[in-house]
Amino acid sequence: MARWIVMNLPPWLLLVGLVVGIAGGTAIVQAFVRHRFPRLKQGEHNEVAQFVFPVVGLVYGFLIGFMVLVLWGQVNSADQTTRAEGAAAVQLARELHVFGTAESARIRQSLLEYGRAATAEWPRAAVGRSTPEAENALNRLYGTYEEIKPRNDIQRAVLTSSLASLRELAGARTARLIQARTNTGPPVSLWMVIFLNTGLVLGFSVIFGSERTRMHYGMVAAVSVLVAANLFLVTELAYPFLGELSSSPEPLNAVLQVLSSPQ
Fold first, then answer.
1. Tens of pLDDT along 198-223?
2. C-alpha 166: how far from its chain's center?
3. Which pLDDT score is estimated for 209?
4. 256 CB contacts (<8 Å, ≥6 apart)?
5. pLDDT at 263 over 60
6. What SS3 string covers the chain?
7. 3-state DSSP call for residue 152?
């Protein structure tokens, strides 16, 4: 469900929806509690609430901070994998001029086909699915290098280096697809813990006694916005290849820019 939301909703709409939904829902609960239990306004229980609420807030802050740290690490790992794939492709593009005219042309064409296919594949690759076009383009790129017959020591050395870069490219691509397939966000049990802590934070802010209605609603609204922002951050970071904070196909476009630049 969370993946579907990230895939189909613009980030600003998701953030607004969380803020409105959580703040509005909490305000409704707050109005009901203040009406149903008018004695809570007197704040006789505030001394106990002031003791427990900091503990709840500390646990909540630690949990969200831990989640953000772990998920941000996944995004960085995914970004490094994509950069490694793009850097290997760029290295291949920079070395093709060493070979003969016909061979260089074939390598250039194969690299262009792979760069375009990998970029076009990104929406599916972001959820761990490959396309036949990208797989076939990678296989043709391998075939192109296997057909090269080096004619001197320089070409032999560059061919060896290029084959190493090609293996790095293929390995990074495989790792990228596996990461997208396996990094599916927090498990259900962890989401339950997050929601439980969220409910406790909002619940304590609602039952906190205050005779000043506006001040109480303002305090609860502030806590609700904070909670909504934290849930938005966790949701956006949960999938390293989806959303505004995720890795992007820009490193794969780098090889197209290199091959398109004047020689």
1. 998 888 787 776 667 777 788 889 99
2. 26
3. 60
4. 112, 115, 116, 119
5. no
6. CHHHHHHHCCHHHHHHHHHHHHHHHHHHHHHHHHHHCHHHHHCCCHHHHHHHHHHHHHHHHHHHHHHHHHHHHHHHHHHHHHHHHHHHHHHHHHHHHHCCHHHHHHHHHHHHHHHHHHHHHHHHHCCCCCCHHHHHHHHHHHHHHHCCCCCCHHHHHHHHHHHHHHHHHHHHHHHHHHHHHHCCCCCHHHHHHHHHHHHHHHHHHHHCCCCCHHHHHHHHHHHHHHHHHHHHHHHHHCCCCCCCCCCCCHHHHHHHHHHHCCC
7. coil
State yes or no: pLDDT of 142 exceeds 90: yes
For the chain, give the mean pLDDT: 85
Which of 136-140, 143-147, 169-173, 183-187 has the least mean pLDDT?
183-187
What residues contact residue 84 under an 8 Å CB cut-off, 6+ apart? 168, 172
SS3 state at 183? coil
